[in-house]
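Fold sample X.
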Amino acid sequence: MAHHIVTLPGDGIGPEILAPTLDLLNRLGDFEFEQHAFGGASIDAHGTALTDETLDACRKADAVLLAAVGGPKWDTTDPSKPRPEQGLLGLRKGLGLYANLRPVKPLPALYESSPLRRERIEGTDLLVVRELTGGIYFGEKTRTETSASDVCMYTCEEIERIARTAFAAAERRSNQPKVSSVDKANVLETSRLWRQVVTELHSREFPNIELEHVLVDNAAMQLVSAPRHFDVIVTENMFGDILSDEAAMLTGSIGMLPSASLGGADGSGPGLFEPVHGSAPDIAGQGIANPLAMFLSAALMLRHGLGLASEAAAVESAVEGALDTGLRTPDLGGEASTAQATAAVMSNLE
């Protein structure tokens, strides 16, 4: 039986990197793809970034593959007008996607592309686990002519759920697992609750895993000064948004990083898989977008969404092989086009 995948090309370079990804997947198994407009493209077509029809289709899918959303065309400070990013928030909430996983492992072939020295990033292999459906992004919002507010709120249940995901991921990754829980407990009441709940869960269910608590500003500094210090980082929504993008730059290009968003009431609902980078409207239509993060996001879908671990490993190996033989797109300091990058990965897959 074919795996049913909803595809959301989105905006900017989104359609350009999604198309070769579907070709790649078709070489690996039996897939059925159902495409829907999303983000800015959906605003143009339907007046909203996420339609009820698209959300319903995503709920019925085995997995959702998203390329990119956003662009200056839809930028606005008017709270009454739709924004592409509202589609992302609505999709996360509608699918119950509470855990975002971002692996960060600089590849040896790209060590020299990193803004940090080789000796600083060599051997880095970390995972950022970000809480996705709570915190300041989803809290009550107010706006007047002279003031505005965004409420940051977390429940014990939300904190425990994401912490359990992080501890379980650490167990699978290493024989000496460590979880770094990032907060701002010296200032924020939500962070004090966060630290309390994570500590209690650790002692109750995961006492064999090393746990440390790190203030978010210290974590930001350590990510660039000593990234090998981290194994699994778990943190709340806004901190995770910022730190995961910072960590992405260790690889030399945000165009190299995939992500997985998992959830559902019992953790088994359809996941959302997408590259970390944005829609890059400045290079859209030029055929030079780096498709590798999209390929690696498909690999995360194969592994975490569909249970196809060997197929996922094949994609990851093909990407690494292409880079080892010299593939470089413009964001990596080379001149390879999207088509040339795709061909290099496909040849390594074979």
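Fold sample Y, listed below.
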Amino acid sequence: MNLDGAGAVRALFSLVIPLSRSAMATVGIFTAMQAWNGFLFPLVLTQSSSVRVLTLGLWDFQGQFGQNVPLLLAAMVLALLPLLVVYLVGRRYLLAGLTAGSGK
């Protein structure tokens, strides 16, 4: 496939990826949110605490008779930072992807 003398790889990096950047950002953010919200499925599948996902690790912070609330909140803030950074970087593309078909 030649488009104005550009090969397939050049067309991919010059046309396809820039036009689909907002859709890829939207899918990435929603996938990260789905992975973050997953609790029951990893709880059933993982047997040892060394291979558990982040949300189950936060769940392990609760004790038998109480909780260390400052430790739990600090762990939650540290666990939320990567997802927050991904959202802040991709926010512009997320809004562009969600409103792409609404124009006249």
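Sample Y note: The chain has one domain: 8-98.
Also: The chain has a mean pLDDT of 80.
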